[in-house]
Amino acid sequence: MTRRQWLALTASAPLAQAAGAIDLGSRRELFVDRYLIESLNGAALRLHPPRREADAITLDRPWEGAFSNYVTVIREGTKFHLYYRGLPASGKDGSDAETTCYATSTDGRTFARPDLGLFEIHGTRRNNAILAGMAPFSSNFSPVLDTRPGVSEAQRFKALAGTRKTGLVAFQSADGVRWKKMSEEPVFRDGVFDSQNLAFWSDTEQCYVLYFRTFKPVDGKRYRWISRTTSTDFLNWTAPVDMSFGPAPPEHLYVNQTHPYFRAPHIYIALAARFMPGRQVLDDEEARALKVDPGYFKDCADAVLLTSRGGATYDRTFLEAFLRPGLGLENWVSRNNYPALNTVQTGPEELSFYTLSNYGQPSVHLRRYSMPLDRFASIGAPYASGECRTRPLRFAGGRLWLNYSTSAPGGVRVEIQDEAGAALPGFTLADSVELIGDRIERAARWKSGPALDALAGRTVRLRFALRDADLFALRFG
Predict the structure, then answer these.
(1) What are the per-10-residue average pLDDT scores of the chain (477 residues)?
(2) Do 51-371 and 3-48+377-476 have the same topology in CATH?
(3) CA 184, CA 170: separation in Å to the nearest integer?
(4) Taking Cα atoms as reference points, which of 338, 203, 324, 214 lies closest to residue 259?
């Protein structure tokens, strides 16, 4: 299926539905897919690209350099851990020139390298390496803070690393700095692994899930693909399955960066690198001026938003770029703009994510992007207004909290309907008090007030009427 055919299909097809009412409880739901939506009239789902912020760290140490890559950022309380591959020059994956480097931050905005003294590199122990001389594991070392209940202190941090030749080997750490193998033997072999291969504990699925690199033939062409396996102990993994992208056309997806969103962990956010092999922007003279490695300017890449609610399916509601390469030829080189693993909260109403920028160039660095909490995408309506009606749902709690943004003349109104779609007395659009402004969380109100206790547990529908406004997320509670 071509991109044009996919766009035509999604524009004309009814929105996907599941049987029965959705039991929301009090969990937060983001409008990053069509899960809650039954119909849209004059409104549409739309992406909200992030804002570029200052660079978080420049990777200019002798053991880091132009081919540093495969970044992970983990927030633990008030501390941010940063992990990445250090590699000064291009070469085959899994060489002794690769190190795994570490930096920390207290605000997630700028990172500093500690002198750890764990390994001697270039004649000194004054470096930030947490893994060195252990080829091939520094090629794609991918750590996670294990959130499984009851995990031992010695295994609070885990990681997977390896190549197709070695398979993935499991590591553990108590502090995220000093690591040791959980087993000398690989724990999983059935993949290509020439990318970041990541795992995490899923509370929703009650198992570890691992997303890893494979290749898949589609219509005679070989694509970089994402596959998945699960485990109950991080050591024994199920037979792998290829991820499905529904009717979306196949594309090369490099790092997938799938992770449970910290404010709605049943939704997995994946900021994936979309790789465009052979799509060249720079000419030879421009590449020489940037001092980009001669083998790394004949492709380009951007970042796309994928989501999943577990299982072997990604939702590709949006084919447009979540993050375009942007101004500057340095952004249009091969394997640039690769997102780091994880989104993290960096302010009371702010989340951040990071990209590896200026790949293959002396100026390689980690760039930060920010956005308001939950605001990856929205139900949006123009000045002429639009509406959304949800599928039947049940909820717990006495308030409906909304994350929204309007223009000065814009607004959001909410009607609560019964299962058949009839407005409930006291909760009609005429009873709704218009929400105006820009709020991460504010309770919907009607003339009688915000209380919904009498409706908790009943099957209802929500009807949103929007005018020059965006609705990003909701929760009851």
Answers:
(1) 44 44 97 98 97 98 97 98 97 94 98 98 96 97 98 98 97 98 97 97 98 97 98 98 96 98 98 98 97 96 98 97 97 96 98 98 97 98 98 98 98 98 98 98 97 97 98 98
(2) no
(3) 8
(4) 203
Six token digits for residue 143: 């750590």
Please state the pTM of the whole predicted model: 0.94
The CATH homologous superfamily for domain 51-371 is Glycosyl hydrolase domain; family 43 (2.115.10.20)
Res 20: pLDDT = 87
Q: Which residues pair with 304 in a beta bridge?
A: 272
Q: What dotted CATH number matches 3-48+377-476? A: 2.60.120.260
**Integer Cα distance of 424 and 409 in angstroms:** 27
What pLDDT sits at residue 19? 57
Angle at the Cα of 356 from the Cα atoms of 258 and 320, rounded to 5 degrees: 60
**CA separation for the pair 387, 44 (Å, rounded):** 9
User: What are 335's two structure tokens?
Assistant: 């394997």
Domain ranges of the chain: 3-48+377-476, 51-371
Q: Encode burial over 217-249: b for 16+ CB neighbours within 10 A, e otherwise.
A: eeeeeeebbbbbbbbeebeebeebeebebeebb
